[in-house]
Records
---
Amino acid sequence: MAQWTVVGSDLLAPAVKPVVEGFAEHSDTEITMEFIGSVPGKEDLKVGEADLAILAAPKDADLPSGNYKVLPIAYEVAYVVVEKLNPLTEVSMEQLAAIFGSSGVQKVERWGELNLQGPIAQRSILPLALDNDSTVVLELFKYEVLQSGSLRANVNRVKGNLQLMEMIASDSGSIGISNQVLLDDKVRALAVSGSDEFAFGPTPENVHYGEYPLRLSYYLVYPREKQNELKPLLKALLGADLADRLDNEGFVPLPENVRKRMLVELDKGA
């Protein structure tokens, strides 16, 4: 009987564990899982105490390389959400920093400062942010937008995502940061522009290809020499079951066409 150890991010564990357990039940494999975080997971992989790691990493992070294979598996996204009738359709990283950040000279206080016209122009902007232990979306936002700086004192931190969505839906002057968009008949996510002038919406394709800038990537990482051995499990982790579970847990899975291409490449030994 094969014996494998799978380690990594505790945040993805609720979605990943059932898939790995289901795979183990229907294969001649004993799998130990230790989802206690990406940092210890990476160390376990490097010292040979793990066969497969699921690691979170910013775009400039130092993932294992060389003798290791790295495959994207999911993304955590910071959505910028407004009430559906709010006329704003896109926002820049610089504008977000001026709304939410405590440092910097420029501060944006009213919607007219974002070039909105009409009655909303004189309304104060009410910034909100999701802040609970089940997501790192606020830290992601602070890292990408505020260069790890602090939030302004007037940012209302909300524990529950549904509560946050209801607050946004009830006030067209609000703008919120969340890892998931609920009540999409009442609220919507904005397109965001990064270093380029063009703003991209948070579609799975834009997130995967890095065009939507507010994302944290998660990867499957394993020794290259173990790819054939691990292939059945890797295929299960690239399947529709995990994609659906990730979506339900508030993560963005890989686009279906990308997953299918990766499955083909696995079969070819790429």
---
Amino acid sequence: MTTPLAFPLNGFMDPQRLWVLALLPVLIVLYVILLRRKAKQGMRYTNTSILAVVMPGQSQWLRHITVALALLSLITLSLAWARPLGVEQVPRQRATVVVVVDISLSMTATDVEPSRLEAAKTEAIEFISGLPAEFNVALVSLSGNPSVRMPPVTDHAAVINLIERLQPQESSSVGDALQAALSALEQAPAGDDGSLAPGMIVLLSDGANTGGQAPRQVAQQCAQSQVPIYTIAFGTDNGYVDLDGSRQPVPPDIGLMRELAQATDGQSYTADNASQLRDAYRRIESEVGFVETEKEITATAAGLSGVFALIAAVGAVMLGARWR
């Protein structure tokens, strides 16, 4: 989607053709000379009442407007011949989304079918599949040793392929994973002015944190960088995993997930309403600015010339008509 072209003109592709505009002052001078000559000629008929019946008077202002429109038509036609360039504002699709998938052992709990991890994978894939093709997407795995599995790329299929192959690992460091996500955002292609693309972090986890940096402190860094965190909490209070022959309860920390989102002006969801996340990218899309690009607008100028010519023709017909 693009915005209307901005004026004034931004140059011409064939500026040497603008020499034809030098003929316009000549036409204007000729028009003024003809008007003065007509005024000096006087009238051949002294009986003006009969003349008024035979030839109704013509409106001076209509004549001037018709000539002016004809000149405007010639001007815009000349501009069209020089192939004018306008300015079009195009959305700068440089947004980056970092998807953080929790692969810690607590995510193997089956209180969410078929498991928390598989449900998180499915939700991540569906979310990425709905993103605009121009968006950069990065992938971070959340475990005791979080890592950037894929830096920001527009190859969404490659990111999805990596998500499908994620396997559980020990421990969980939410804060370190968010720090890795911030680092991934910095790897996104910069704009022409060196600015970083606007971004967001999507965290899919049960919120369990067993070490590393404090998640809330890293969330403050995200807030300072204007990077919202959107969270989806997976799991129920009855969730458990079997480790070394013993059953370990792994309730989700929904409170932490909610705090991370609120601290960064994001949104928090649960597995039950995770589908609402699929429209969250529209918020970051609305924050993406516009860039001005040059675009040839010859057709626009030619069309405008045609409109002026049509109106001038109507005026000429009205001047030549004999109304009774």
---
Amino acid sequence: MALRLGMRRRARDLYALISDLFDTLSEGSGSFNLGLWDPDDPRPVDLAAAQHALVARTQENLPREGHWLDAGSGLGGPALQALAAHSRLHITGVNITPEQVQAAQLRAELRGLSNRVDFEEGDIQALDQAPGTFDGAYALEAAFHCPDKAAFFAEARRVLKPGAPFALADFAALDSGLVLWERLVLRLGLWTSATPPLFTFAQWEEAARTTGFEDVVITDLSSEVRPTLSAWADRLSRHREALVARYPRLLVDAFALALRQILKRPQGAFRYVLLTARAP
């Protein structure tokens, strides 16, 4: 419990600190995900299109109407994308950082969607919603922050209606391939980003199954995510001066350096998982 509370506070404080950075790099979309791109497509990556594609892929098995849970809703982009596509949908977004909740609420108001979405401050490992509240749920690059991923899966299952679909798109650990200094750098990066050790594909699957989810399917999206990293490096470079005006130059340059180092590795420094499942 102490570990979970400590990591929760660190994640909340971290995202409060860098919320403006995320907002700047999202370029008004409210989406801050790695994006999805065909590795065989010779065209330069359109990062906005790639991010839209990843959101759509994550949400594709959820019902087109009813009430969804967005677990770790960030700046609100993925929820608003779904609402724009499906007119009979309502979404509750839960996020740990009040600054991001406020930014998401404002974005919903500006798009005229605030009557169909509720962004709330909360812990996705201990949700306030009653059992059987939601017709579907997803978590996009959020659950990796949870020190108790079993608690997260158990909560997601609890608040879903029987048979309701669930989807998670997130980072996963490499099974092997990192040399000692790379493991040390990765561990430092995880610590500074308030992230416990990454799960492997097998650990993600086990956590879902042992908490009662059924029809668990793991899909490896690593090769489709990797092409977008260079586009992220370009976007960071494009906004560097604006970011340096708000943040220590060392922080911005460290972010850029980390991206460049990952790009040098043929297999990257992490894998990327899409997990789909169904509540019993």
